[in-house]
Amino acid sequence: MSRVKVHDKEFEIYIPQDQIERAIKKVAENINRDYAGKNPMFLVVLNGAFMFAAELFKNIEIECEISFVKLSSYHGTESTSVVRELIGLDHAVTGRNIILVEDIVDSGLTMLFTIDKLKKLEAATVKIATLLFKPKAFQYSYSIDYIGMEIPNDFIIGYGLDYNEHARNLPDIYRIVSE
User: Fold this and answer.
1) What is d(CA 160, CA 103) in angstroms, rounded to the nearest whole number?
2) What pTM did the predictor assign?
3) Sign of torsion, CA 156 158 160 163?
4) If I label 2, which of 36, 65, 78, 96 is the partner at 20 to 30 A Cα–Cα?
């Protein structure tokens, strides 16, 4: 499908699945190199990062653990500028090396919220692995450690990313063409 309609919006294919998978393998190779022998805990931010995390884990070769949190800061195509924690952390992180797994970092608010929380819980280190990064939308100064791809500040769907909870199941990433 080169175009899809979701609710009242039209989207066109932007990043095909094979390109997504190549980017994820690159992220996994870097994590495997950097965390060999360190047993990190991957903390996956739901709902959007589930497809990225699943593909990433097919390529992770080091000893590690995984846990999930559910956070929300979007409604429709806009950020609400408020992060809500819908399902919280259920593992101790004190002294652990944490890799946050996120589908997309745009403004950076959700990651800032999560980094601050993990630091208060005394995580040894906190690194970020994201499939997509929007540098022109990013509003903070912390580093994004593992980036699959940098993209412009377009609204996108597919491969876990949604528009009002729809289109997460698309195997490719689409960008909006009509507002």
Assistant:
1) 7
2) 0.90
3) positive
4) 78
β pairing state of 156-157 and 173-178:
antiparallel
154 part of the active site: no
Nearest in space to 108 (alpha carbons), one of 38, 18, 45, 27: 45
In a domain, 175, yes or no: no
Reference 178, options 158, 160, 162, 155; nearest CA is 155
Domain that holds residue 47: 18-150
Total structural domains within the chain: 1
pLDDT profile of the chain (179 residues), mean per 10: 92 97 98 97 93 97 93 55 56 92 93 90 96 96 97 96 94 89
Catalytic-role residue among 8, 90, 106, 145: 106
